[in-house]
Model the fold of this input.
Amino acid sequence: MKTMFFTQAADDALAQAMADDPRIVVFGEDIPLVRRDLLVRFGPKRVRGTPISESAFLGAGVTAAMAGLRPVVEMYMVDFFGVCVDALLNHAAKTEAFSGGKWTVPMVVRAPCGGGYGDGGQHEQSLWGWLAHIPGLTVVVPSTPADAGGLMLASLQNNGPVIFLEHKLLSESWLEFLGSGARKTVSYDIPAEGAKGEVPSKWEPIPLGEAALRRTGSDVTIVSLGVSVHRALEAAKILEAEGISAGVLDLRTVSPLDKTTLCKAVKQTGRLLVVDEDYETFGLSGELSAVVLEAGLSCKYARVCTQTTIPYNRNLEDQALPNVERICTSVRQLMK
Amino acid sequence: MPSDLWSLYALMLKSRLFEEATAKLWHEGLISGEMHLGTGEEAIIAGVVSHLNDGDAMALDHRGTAAMLMRGVDPILLLREFLGYKDGLCGGMGGHMHLFSKEHLAASSGIVGSEGPAAAGFALAAQYSRPGAIAVAFFGDGAMNQGMLMESMNLAAIWKLPVLFVCKDDGWAITTKSESSTGGDLNERARGLGVPALDFEGCDAAKVWDTAGTAIERIRSGEGPIFLHARCVHFEGHFLGFQPIRIVRDPLKEMPKVAIGLTKSILRLDGAALSERLAGLKNVMSSVITTLRDPRRDPANDPLLHTRAALQSDPVRLKELEDQLEKDINNILKIVLGEVPS
Done:
């Protein structure tokens, strides 16, 4: 079995798809440097840089997809969707419905997301709940290299727009680029199994909308995604020593949401803890409680999310983002 | 208000020393996240900011330290903010990309191009409540390709808003050379939106001071916005640890990281024809090669050396000033850290 780093895996699956499908083109800011390996393998016609003009190139990605290409549009960070959200909200997400189902937008939008390295509240957001709120968008948040590759392939094969979010703490290349490559004096709490792991010898698509049970547990179901999956797994080990059996469900895609697996797991334990690095209110964590209620299940419920603007101060930041301690405390509370 | 080269040089050197100390602390790991220095653009900032009065506003980009410092924000508060201290300028909540000083009407943003609308709003408020006051927007040439910046130029033109748009043009949009990301001429672009444009070398502090002074006078009198286009260099590139500069400075360490992947990409089956692959390789290497020949490596483009040369006729005064500023910065470090890092 071979192993890969997280972004390496996503890029490798993308390269496999590009070799098979000449319609796939890649563009975004600084792509000649950031995706240099793809540029050299597939040439500058298929892999190109853009100006800092997100509204233009993301909007162009939508219609390029409508006209027969399979664009992979790269954003520098998920936070910068703020500049150009119209292309997603009013166009990418609407075309299929507006055309009576006759016209689709097979575009993948890649964006680094997430915090834990001290860049502050304008560069470390998650925002997957905000994006998944819009009908017509698929939102993918892988937590391991194997999922990064398999979900990338599925995203590329999907006929509608997919937002593919890569957590920077898992991404070897983003952390290197953003400054850790030039100094050894900083360290980050990088989950080892998320940053590097086993991958298949040939990529197969992992169906969008299928959650993965990372750990079985009979007392409580912890539902999470991205880096927080690894925080939840770490917490589950600590809780096990206290006699609490915590299962961990990795959603992998926010939209479509795997309601069946969620409800099945919650039904077994009767306790649901959502660990979501995105903002707490009006988002994914509340949505999961609604799904469970709508299914007629009764359970004890709690959530560990980001409640405020993410502080620049590293200690405050670590407290603001979901961490192992907060997860353990919440589970213990649920067990009372 | 400094009207002579000595005061401009003092502002610039203060900022340079402060940012060099900041870089050291970043390399030591005491400052987290990214760090965008303004070393190389000091003449532009000094030449503009020294014309500002109470009631004037500044909309800053992710590179706002020099402007904050020269506008009079306490360097101790700034440094404490960079270190994430609770008693920093913004309570340790913002960091260097998100510096705010309400007292100075100065607001920063890490979102490229957002300085345009921000300055327009400050200027609108000035039009109502502080006649004669202006707003300055500082941004790079990369930001000129953001819709919101162009939109705000148009808005400022039709509402005759008192905005000074200052483009600090270093020829790069992060790691992309401007010629491959910017069409047309930036001055013509501003003029096309109804904003008069002035173009000049930004490493000459006296020239900046003169040009900005004339422009600001016109803006204060209600003539509407003006666009200043000043060229500069950024010695550290986009941010500290900037990859193309790292490769140039330490090729033996950095090249292998890059070369292995590139070699594999050339050799892998399934992909473009060899000519396309070589075109891709040329594309990748061009940013590194351009960095090698980069004007930022030429001391002639250092605005401090440029200004200093003009002051060398009075070496005693020059030495006194430099010694004093060095003492000041060491004092600041001592107050903030308890010691001067070796």
